[in-house]
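ugh ok fine here u go
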Amino acid sequence: MEKTNDSIKDIIKKAKEGNQIAFSTLLDTFWNDVYGFQLLRTKNENDAEDITIRTFSRAFDKIDTYDDAYEFKTWLIAISKNLHVDLIRKRKRNFLDEMESQGDAVKKVLDETPTVEDRLITEQNLADLLLDIKKLKPHYQEVINLRYFNELSYAAIAKELNEPVNNVKVKLLRAKKLLAEIIKKK
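structure:
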């Protein structure tokens, strides 16, 4: 469905006012453009999808800074391009750090089996996380459980919930943000 410039501007205006349907419409309208751009750059579906999700997250967080003198798609692509550059820099830095640490000494074989204390701390952290998840609305709890505890793909979650994949991605993104806010408040 091709949208006119005026209708896109109206949708952006509604998104700036916090209208969730407008956010979903923008995601549906521009998802393929950003994802296709990243797929050409990264040549990796997982990286392209991850950067695309982060692009929309950043764009929606900063929607008030969007200047409608420019095309919305161009703004999204610029955000996406910057996120890709950041990812490359991070990977390069991690690679260099790893190479540096390997050159210092012969690798030591470490027993990475968690101690009793480590297991107890992990269980306590998981219990706290589960309590925090229960503070979310049920539909957010469900999408987090399906993704992170049942380890379902976005497509499998979409099938389970009978919703489009893009809606699942947005819902999961919002759930993670709300959960992060709950955790920060503690």
